[in-house]
Specification:
Layout (H helix, E strand, L loop, with lengths): L14 H7 L9 E8 L5 E3 L7 E4 L3 H10 L4 E7 L16 H12 L5 E5 L12 E3 L2 E3 H18 L3 E4 L6 H11 L8 E6 L6 H6 L20 H13 L3 E5 L5 H10 L4 E5 L1 H12 L7 H13 L3 E4 L2 H7 L3
Helix pairs in contact: 2-3, 3-4, 4-5, 7-8, 8-10
The structure holds ligand PBG.
The site of ligand PBG has 10 residues, from helix 6.
Length: about 325
């Protein structure tokens, strides 16, 4: 059958027909919100490079958790920003540190809301790198026990999922072993398996005060030119015991998401990162792009590429507008 019997526009004519034939749908439960948690009291501090996103102190989290749960989001991922940083990022695995207290506050307020702990050292080290920094490089093997400790502390504080984002080799295996040894065998690992050395993380580093003081992350995060390597990274993490895997950033990596979806059966996440958010918000503020359509299209495209769940700073915005 061909034109004129076949007409693709038949299914596009009305909203009802378009809804009937839509392949990809998105609901609040598919989205995970991302929160920045700081020391202090009653802090609700805007982030200049991320209009609409706030840094919150721990006492603000009960309300925030309830809001997120009421909106029906799939959960929240937490990033801690400590008052003081040191070479080994010790505040990242202190049971009384910012991230542990934040997790406890969220779980106390809404036990049913899924809380994911980002596991990395860059927010907690004074040099801003994701591990132990020695002779201008991040020392892989020395970093593993610190990441493992961070994961155990987060899980003990009540995190439902731990999500290593550091890109050290062998970290999933090290974290799995440490969790199992600490009787936390039921805590799943969401691995940032294919994480690129992306310029789109810029606004996050302002938000989390985690920009490296010298050098960059290209010695451990992936080269944006590589896609086959992403599949190897994911395969390695699955072998090491990852329960779920992530591709990051999202919109610059739709091809990687699609290829990962074809190859792997595990739940697949994508992270619509700070730069993707700021790029859209900046253009929306100037009237160059139309909200909310451009926001919804960006999320839908990531879902269509094959991501099951999306971490996004637009999560609450999307959920507030969602109508069945
Ligand atoms: C590292 C981490 C980063 C992001 C999530 N986890 C920053 C980095 O690798 O520099 C970036 C997220 C974003 O840009 O929104 N702990």
């Amino acid at each position: 059958m061909a034109f004129p019997e076949q007409r693709a526009r038949r299914l596009r004519r009305t909203p009802a027909l378009r809804a009937l034939s839509r392949e990809t749908r998105l609901a609040p439960g598919d989205l995970i919100d991302a929160l920045f948690v700081v020391e202090g009291r009653s802090v609700r501090e805007p982030i200049a490079a991320m209009p609409g996103v706030l840094r919150l102190s721990v006492d603000q989290l009960a309300d925030e958790a309830k809001k997120i749960a009421d909106l029906g989001l799939g959960g929240a991922i937490l990033f801690g920003i400590p008052a003081s940083k040191d070479a080994l990022g010790t505040s990242g695995y202190d049971p009384e540190g910012i991230i542990a207290r934040a997790i406890r506050a969220m779980k106390r307020a809404t036990p049913e809301l899924l809380v994911i702990a980002d596991v990395c050292l860059c927010e907690y080290t004074d040099h801003g790198h994701c591990g132990v920094y020695r002779d201008g490089e991040v020392a892989n093997d020395e970093t593993l026990p610190l990441l493992a400790k961070s994961a155990v502390v987060a899980a003990e504080a009540g995190a439902d999922v731990v999500a290593p984002s550091d890109m050290m080799d062998g970290r999933v295996a090290a974290i799995r072993r440490a969790l199992d040894d600490a009787r936390l065998a039921d805590t799943p690992i969401l691995s940032y398996a294919a994480k690129y050395a992306s310029a789109f993380y810029g606004p996050f580093r302002e938000a989390a005060e985690s920009a490296p003081k010298s050098g960059d992350r290209r010695g451990y995060q992936m080269d944006p030119g590589n896609a086959r390597e992403a599949l190897r990274e994911i395969a390695t993490d699955v072998e090491e015991g990852a329960d779920m895997v992530m591709v990051k950033p999202a919109m610059p990596c739709l091809d990687v998401i699609a290829r990962a979806r074809e190859r792997f059966d595990l739940p697949l996440f994508a992270y619509q990162v700070s730069g993707e958010y700021s790029m859209l918000q900046g253009a929306i503020e100037r009237g160059w792009l139309e909200a909310p359509r451009v926001i919804d299209e960006s999320l839908l495209a990531i879902r269509r590429a094959g991501a099951d769940r999306i971490i996004s700073y637009f999560a609450k915005d999307f959920a507030r507008r969602f109508r069945g």
